[in-house]
Structure formats: C-alpha cells, structure tokens
Amino acid sequence: MKISDISRITEKGVTVDVSVSPNSSASGPDGFDEWRKRLIIRVRAPPLDGKANKEVEDVLKDITGFRAEIMAGHLSRQKTVTIYGDPGTIIKALEDV
Question: Residue 4: phi, psi to the nearest 5?
C-alpha cells in the first residue's frame, strides 16, 4: 500500500485516513491497515479528554513539519486528518516514514 492510497490532495494541503492505536508503548506511524486502507498511528495517550487526538496531530506534525488537524472521527479510532501545507512536501515526508 502507498500513501497515495490513503491520502487526497486538497486546496489546503493533504487529507489522510488514519487508524489510531491508543495506549501504545511508543508513539509514531506503524505501517498500513490494508483492510481499512488507513495509516496506522500509535500513540501513548489514552483515548480520554482528547489526549489521543492531540497526540495524533502532534505525531503527524513531527513527521511532516506542518500543522495537522483531525477533521472527522474525533470519537473513533478511524480518523480523517488534514495536514496543512505544501502537498508535495507532505506526501514525500509521509512516504519516507
């Protein structure tokens, strides 16, 4: 699976479909969920009070260097995240992970 399978270029940047695994021992990307067609993001935070959501945004910002915002799925493990910035740079950073 490729980043292009789980992302869409928008006028604001790139929208990425992710699957979140909270309460993990480490934070960061962990491959693809082939069945759901999503990037797996592991976070240390529990899914309480938006802590895991904030950490997902922080992980994607650390990877790409651009601000990330969850657009859909705030109460679900399956989320849609918009990363604001140059689409080419964002896609390249995600591919390099």
Answer: -65, -20
In the chain, the domains with their CATH numbers are: 3-95 (3.30.1200.10)
Whole-structure pTM value: 0.92
Tell me what percent of the residues of the chain surpass a pLDDT of 70: 100
Burial 39-73 (b: 16+ CB within 10 A, else e): bbbbbebebeeeebbebbbebbbebbebebbbeeb
From residue 15, alpha-carbon distances to 1, 28, 51, 79 in Å are 16, 18, 21, 10
Q: What is the pLDDT of residues 17-58, one digit of tens each?
A: 999 999 999 999 999 999 999 999 999 999 999 999 999 999
Where in the chain does DSSP place strands (E)?
A: 7-9, 13-21, 28-33, 38-42, 68-72, 78-84
**What's 90's DSSP letter?**
H
